[in-house]
Amino acid sequence: MFIDRVKIFIKSGKGGDGSVSFRREKYIPNGGPDGGDGGRGGDIIFKVDSGLNTLSDFRNNKQYKAENGQNGMKKRKHGADGEDLIIRVPKGTVIKDEETGKVIADLAIEGMEEIILKGGRGGKGNQHYATPTMQAPEYAQPGQKSREIWVKLELKVLADVGLVGFPNVGKSTFLSRVTNARPKIADYHFTTLSPNLGVVDFKEGKGFVIADIPGLIEGASEGIGLGLEFLRHIERTKTIIHIVDAASVEGRNPVEDIKAINKELAAYNEELLNRPQVIAANKIDVLDSDEPIEELKAEFEPHGIKVFPISAVTGKGVQELLNEVREILSKLDDEPIVFEKEYFIEDELNIDEPIKVEKIEDHLYSVEGVKIDRMLGYTNLDNEKGFDFFQKFLRDNKVIEELEKLGIEEGDTVQIYDLEFDFYK
């Protein structure tokens, strides 16, 4: 079964807690702190698997959780890191935030993998908090919390060319003639229930991939019929072939069909109308006159959209059409169309997380938080200007104010993760 859209819950692993422990050995009754650090929580990683072409594996499993880090142990033993969870998806899978619909990542390249949720950092054991004035610290750092989010996975097929047209205009017949694809073909609407992909090969030069997008109807962009379910598959295509029934076998007007489909494409995503287009005027083998072809040319060729009379049944005119499409593609970028990242997950999940300021023991204070951690990542504290910038950040975020409320005095120690500072006004 072809599944191209699912919603799942993902959660990274929590960091293990640091240990509070003291060395207790024969002849050493009052040894120093030896609590080990907690292990890192596992990441949630999405990876492209070339063996997959649908999201059907997610139908029965909606929750994915990475392993938590183990707590630290005595004798300075480090807790084991939690195992990362690798979630395998087909190439072309777009990961979106379920609530906002914004793009978190687009896995459009073979072998691509991306960490979507990072596991929590392991907490430090009490061995790190010993000072000359506090030789037996009863404090260890807790592990960082896990991260969790609901995401939507959408599979948008990777193809150079998208075939569009109303039902029963001959798209499946055309695809089976020009490629190695063998779609099921029947004479009723929406017989194609999933996008069919085929490769067009040339004796000389590079070929291209065609996606047969299921037949559209007016209102498809608003969810009428099945159109909305498949319009997403044309978003990556670099050029579009409109196939119309030039013979009007079902009484349709081919000119109005092209206009109606372009209207649906624009309603779904206006950028689609900027892609190069060609028209395949199909079923000329049963056409009584050239009048419909001339009408199509008069309407669309002044706008740069070429019209090719073809018969998908006999093959007449098909090669000329394929040559034109190859020529168009040769002028375009070879790289696949990739959707830009819109949702920066760590920033969004941590936006309201406060900075934690606490007193550990007399003369020892701790400051932690995602904002602080991020600031340390891009601030050069060895540089006077950088250090002044960091101090201003602490004041602006009321960290200094909180330390003063807790009773900090000049000369006391402030620990910020792996760094220690002496407090002076």
From TrEMBL:
Domain OBG-type G: 159-330
Residues annotated to bind GTP: 165-172, 190-194, 212-215, 282-285, 311-313
Family: Belongs to the TRAFAC class OBG-HflX-like GTPase superfamily. OBG GTPase family.
Protein's UniProt name: GTPase Obg
CDD domains tied to this protein: Obg
Domain of life: Bacteria
InterPro entries: G_OBG, GTP-bd, GTP-bd_Obg/CgtA, GTP-bd_prot_GTP1/OBG_C_sf, GTP1-OBG_CS, GTP1_OBG_dom, GTP1_OBG_dom_sf, OBG_GTPase
One GO MF term: GTP binding
Purpose: An essential GTPase which binds GTP, GDP and possibly (p)ppGpp with moderate affinity, with high nucleotide exchange rates and a fairly low GTP hydrolysis rate. Plays a role in control of the cell cycle, stress response, ribosome biogenesis and in those bacteria that undergo differentiation, in morphogenesis control.
Native organism: Natranaerovirga pectinivora
GO annotations of cellular component type: cytoplasm
Residue sites binding Mg(2+) per the record: S172, T192
Class of this enzyme: hydrolase
Residue ranges of every copy of the OCT domain listed in the record: 347-425
Domain Obg: start-end pairs: 1-158
Cofactor(s) required for function per UniProt: Mg(2+)
Assembly with partners or alone: Monomer.
Gene encoding the protein: obg
EC number of the protein: 3.6.5.-
PANTHER family: DEVELOPMENTALLY REGULATED GTP-BINDING PROTEIN-RELATED, MITOCHONDRIAL RIBOSOME-ASSOCIATED GTPASE 2
Gene Ontology biological process: ribosome biogenesis
Localisation: Cytoplasm
NCBIfam families for this protein: Obg_CgtA, Obg_CgtA_exten, PRK12296.1, PRK12297.1, PRK12299.1
Keywords from the named record: Cytoplasm, GTP-binding, Hydrolase, Magnesium, Metal-binding, Nucleotide-binding
